[in-house]
Design brief:
5-stranded parallel beta sheet; alpha/beta; 7 helices; 44% helix
Length: 172
Amino acid sequence: MICVWFTGLSGAGKTTLAVALKEKLLSKGYTVYHEDGDISRQKKNFLGFSHADRIKHNIMVIDEVAQFEKYDFVLVSLISPFQKTRDYSRKKINNYFEIFVSCPIEVCIERDPKKIYEAYFQGKIKDVTGLDQEYEIPNEPNLITYSNQNSIKNCVENIYGALVNKFSLAER
């Protein structure tokens, strides 16, 4: 199993890229599971967005993903704002491939697909990563993709190419 971990701010394009990559991998004959942070969090609705709760959530996801050996690929799209939890992922999960989906906060605020930033600026919520909660830019991601500068297709082609190179993927 190869775990492709998408990290970045809310609205950066993590889920969009993971879904597009999943389609590409499925078309190549691979088995793929996608774990999305929003869906995962709904299952763990007892967790909030505090620093401690984010770490708990990330570790729960990491522990779950490590068990998905029946898939060729497990794609994880999760803000995962802390280097500590990403380092834990790298140690716990064999064949871990981290992608930093880089996108300026201003663009993420413009996109705001879940209206998180809007709710923050209206004073309805707090603990928003990139605003009043820190996002630690990854120290050594396997790949950085700039979602505000490239098309989804271009990003996915670059990601797929990097995966082929890193893991010597063969067409199926």
